[in-house]
């Protein structure tokens, strides 16, 4: 087995740099799975689409792809694999919209479940004093939003990009500029339905099967497949005031962000970006922001300086626009941005929330969406953000970056420490997200450069003793995973032994390995 593991590791290393497609299939798989009676179906021939992800660097072919129509289909498939026991190498991965970065939704030689095929439960909104919505784990957030808006409602906490599935983001955390108010998406779920690693269909919530409920939230797909989620809703505003201001001073930028996230009366959404040596600033931002004063905005010249952009929104309905403008004016008067850099826009709530999709459409049309994405997402404790910025923006990335860099604060008190999500041990910590693209025209040069920069950043954090935690974590050894989870590793491993004792689920995270 050791030899098998070393061989696997070698293949894995090769795939990291060259994105080769790897086959580890078992010829008996189709005949054994064909015996299952399903509402949906398996496909055995073209499994290559299920082996693709947004990261575009890892591609492990599965032996079969399940297109489930019902939760019973998912349960039957997992139960079947569970009953085969350790005599079979088969594993199972739920695949949401495949926006993972390093093959996390892939199952080498195993079964990938295309969660978007799952058609139950139908998305249903429940109005009332505490409105909520039930959605399938394979539903895209954009569709959840469109359905809830029909009732004048919307989920409270978002990701920047909505073409991700409910099960996919709840397996991580789901974060954006609303987290400081509502917590991540995993703090806004009342109940889940889950298929465990034994194929059992279990309902769970804070009151019922609470250990499984909290384990699955942020659980990287390790304890069960989320087949449905009950998501908290709030009244949806019709419009948002969307504002961007620029800073050249990092201290003012971070102090203003921290002040805003702790103030009682504040914006509804707050994020920051780092802009390194950018010209045509506005075109380079990753969204559809069109300021009311585009000429002034396009004339602003960064002169090669690193600039920091603070982005905020205030929700409003058309009849509240005067009050909203007053509140915004008061808040802006407390900030220390470069005075000539106040850019404003007003858009519908839907347009704001779906803003990154506009860039996706543009990038796709230029063949720049399906390229390698060596992203690195880090949570940095507030007390070390200056050390981090000095080294990373001053030395490691002094004059280039291959994509947007997000930098904004979050507060621990809005996260539930019973979930599996891992965050730093400080009340305020920053998300710093290096969202690099490596277009193929650069002959691997930009991919290698970005990967090297990521390594340098991680090395620096380690040497400087910065207690960084990766978001959307990627590790290849158990030791690294143990260090990632720290004190919560024991709970994580215990939950695995209870809910997925044969380690069938989500092998692409490379945390546990099925002991065949
Ligand atoms: P997949 O990539 O298909 O799956 C992710 C993991 O979850 C895999 O391990 C998979 O096996 C598992 N999984 C999938 N479905 C289920 C299920 N139903 N039950 C159990 N496990 C499951 N994240 C943020 O928090 N905030 C952002 O603003 C944000 N923006 C993004 C923008 C882009 C353009 C991209 C590509 C990613 C972004 N992400 C963001 C990251 C994103 O939330 C995660 O990559 C998420 O996992 C992707 O969802 P998916 O449906 O594509 O999941």
TrEMBL record:
InterPro entries: Cytok_DH_C_sf, Cytokinin_DH_FAD/cytokin-bd, FAD-bd_PCMH, FAD-bd_PCMH-like_sf, FAD-bd_PCMH_sub1, FAD-bd_PCMH_sub2, FAD-linked_Oxase-like_C, FAD-linked_Oxidoreductases_BP
Keyword Signal annotated: yes
Organism: Phoenix dactylifera
Entry's EC annotation: 1.5.99.12
Listed GO biological process terms: cytokinin metabolic process
GO molecular function, one term: FAD binding
SUPFAM superfamilies xrefs: FAD-binding/transporter-associated domain-like, FAD-linked oxidases, C-terminal domain
Family: Belongs to the oxygen-dependent FAD-linked oxidoreductase family.
UniProt key word Flavoprotein: yes
Cofactor: FAD
Enzyme class: oxidoreductase
Name of the featured protein: cytokinin dehydrogenase
Keyword list, A-Z: FAD, Flavoprotein, Oxidoreductase, Signal
Domain FAD-binding PCMH-type: 58-236
PANTHER family for the chain: CYTOKININ DEHYDROGENASE 6, GULONOLACTONE OXIDASE
Stretch forming the signal peptide: 1-18
């Amino acid at each position: 087995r050791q030899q098998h593991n070393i061989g696997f590791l070698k293949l894995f290393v090769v795939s990291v740099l060259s994105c080769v497609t790897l086959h580890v299939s078992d010829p008996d798989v189709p005949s054994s799975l064909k015996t299952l009676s399903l509402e949906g179906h398996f496909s055995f021939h073209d499994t290559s689409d299920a082996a693709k992800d947004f990261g575009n660097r890892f591609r492990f072919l599965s032996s079969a792809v399940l297109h489930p129509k019902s939760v019973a289909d998912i349960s039957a498939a997992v139960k079947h694999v569970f009953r085969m026991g350790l005599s079979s190498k088969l594993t199972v991965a739920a695949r949401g919209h495949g926006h993972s970065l390093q093959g996390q939704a892939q199952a080498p030689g195993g079964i990938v479940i295309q969660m978007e095929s799952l058609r139950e439960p139908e998305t249903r909104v429940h109005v009332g004093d505490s409105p909520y919505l039930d959605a399938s784990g394979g539903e895209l957030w954009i569709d959840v939003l469109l359905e809830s808006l029909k009732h004048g409602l919307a989920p409270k906490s978002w990701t920047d990009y909505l073409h991700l599935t409910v099960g996919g983001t709840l397996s991580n955390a789901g974060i954006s500029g609303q987290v400081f108010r509502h917590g991540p998406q995993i703090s806004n779920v009342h109940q889940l339905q889950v298929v465990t690693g034994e194929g059992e269909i279990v309902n769970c919530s804070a009151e019922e099967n609470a250990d499984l409920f909290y384990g699955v939230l942020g659980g990287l797909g390790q304890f069960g497949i989320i087949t449905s989620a009950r998501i908290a809703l709030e009244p949806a505003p019709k419009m948002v005031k969307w504002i961007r201001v620029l800073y050249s001073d990092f201290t003012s930028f971070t102090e203003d962000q921290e002040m805003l996230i702790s103030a009682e009366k504040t914006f509804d959404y707050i994020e920051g970006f780092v802009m390194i040596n950018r010209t045509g600033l506005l075109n380079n931002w990753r969204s559809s922001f069109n300021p009311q004063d585009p000429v002034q905005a396009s004339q602003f010249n960064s002169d090669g300086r690193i600039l920091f952009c603070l982005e905020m929104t205030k929700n409003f309905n058309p009849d509240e626009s005067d009050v909203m403008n007053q509140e915004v004016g008061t808040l802006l008067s407390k900030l220390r941005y470069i005075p000539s850099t106040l850019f404003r826009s007003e858009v519908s709530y839907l347009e704001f929330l779906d803003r990154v999709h506009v860039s996706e459409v543009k990038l796709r049309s230029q063949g720049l969406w399906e390229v390698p994405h060596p992203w690195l997402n880090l949570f940095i404790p507030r007390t070390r953000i200056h050390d981090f910025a000095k080294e990373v923006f001053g030395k490691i990335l002094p004059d280039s970056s291959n994509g947007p860099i997000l930098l904004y604060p979050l507060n621990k008190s809005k996260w539930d420490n019973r979930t599996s999500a891992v965050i730093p041990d400080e009340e305020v910590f920053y998300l710093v997200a290096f969202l690099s693209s490596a277009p193929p025209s650069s002959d691997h040069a930009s991919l290698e450069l970005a990967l090297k920069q990521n390594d340098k950043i991680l090395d620096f954090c380690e040497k400087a003793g910065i207690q960084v935690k990766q978001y959307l974590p990627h590790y290849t050894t158990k030791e690294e995973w143990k260090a990632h989870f720290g004190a919560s590793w024991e709970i994580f491993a215990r939950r695995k032994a209870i809910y997925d004792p044969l380690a069938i689920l989500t092998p692409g995270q490379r945390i546990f390995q099925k002991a065949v």
